[in-house]
Design goal:
The protein is an alpha/beta fold and about 250 residues long. The strands form four sheets. The chain has a five-stranded parallel β-sheet, sandwiched between helices. The protein has a five-stranded antiparallel β-sheet with strand order 10-9-8-12-11. The chain has a three-stranded antiparallel β-sheet with strand order 13-14-15, covered by helices on one side. Helix 1 crosses helix 5. It is elongated.
């Protein structure tokens, strides 16, 4: 996985680089890091040829908001306008920028001093959202399917079988829903994002855009029911997936 770190504070660059490499060792990930001392330096590097290895590996960007000249938010807006495939993690000493973070589609908003534990959790979510988790295998009607978790919208029971819903369409699996659910729950990297919302339905939180009373809304606009008994657990899972928990709302530091 390619991780870029952009900050005009050399000490912060060194600290975040050490945290990222530590996470890579713990997670068993091959991590390529690049550091940039300003938004302009990153734009220049990414403006022509991609950084070495970046085309093959999806990008994660740890981005300081408060930098001289061009701010991190200005850079994030430019990257979004350019349709860069990057998960952005914003870092700052003040929480007043949080609404702007949502505007640029930031994965997470980390307050200084950055917690190593919180950063590691966020990097794991970034990796998962970029679709770098190992594939799942399902028995289709006439072939064995290898499916990237990021491609799954939701799984639905149908009699003794399961319907796999993807953006490209739905496909009937020979596996029973109970077997599929068992396989998912055995995978610690999957059971955070593929969660049961109703009897016979597991939804992929990567593609849930909103919660409402009695249901979830997918980014496709489709609405799925949430049973009353699962409402609290679904909400906890949704907030955890998007990093909105008490640990992520620590006090800021200038």
């Amino acid at each position: 996985m390619y991780v870029a770190i952009c900050d005009d504070d050399p000490a912060q660059l060194s600290l975040l680089t050490a945290y990222v490499r530590s996470w890579g060792e713990k997670a068993g990930e091959i991590v390529q890091t690049e550091v940039y001392h300003s938004a302009e330096e990153l734009l220049f590097a990414w403006g022509g040829e991609k950084p070495e290895g970046a085309e093959e590996r999806k990008k994660v960007l740890l981005l300081d908001i408060e930098m001289r000249d061009m701010s991190g938010l200005e850079l994030a807006r430019i990257l979004r306008d350019r349709k860069e495939a990057v998960e952005i993690i914003l870092v700052t000493g003040h929480d007043r920028y949080m609404p702007d973070g949502y505007d640029v589609g930031a994965l997470q908003y980390l307050l200084k001093p950055v917690s190593m534990e919180k950063l590691e959790e966020t990097l794991t979510r970034a990796r998962d959202r970029l679709g770098e988790m190992p594939h799942l295998f399902f028995r289709g009607a006439s072939k064995l399917l290898s499916v990237a978790p990021v491609d799954i919208l939701y799984l639905e029971a149908e009699g003794h079988h399961t319907i796999l819903h993807r953006k490209a369409g739905a496909e009937r699996l020979l596996d029973s829903f109970s077997k599929v659910r068992e396989n998912v729950e055995e995978r610690s990297d999957l059971n955070r994002c593929l969660v049961p919302v109703h009897r016979g339905i597991m939804v992929n939180l990567m593609h849930v855009s909103a919660l409402e009373r009695g249901g979830v809304i997918l980014e496709t606009g489709e609405r799925l029911p949430v049973s009353r008994s699962l409402e609290k657990s679904v909400m906890r899972a949704f907030l955890s997936w998007h990093g909105q928990d008490a640990r992520g709302m620590g006090s800021g530091k200038s």
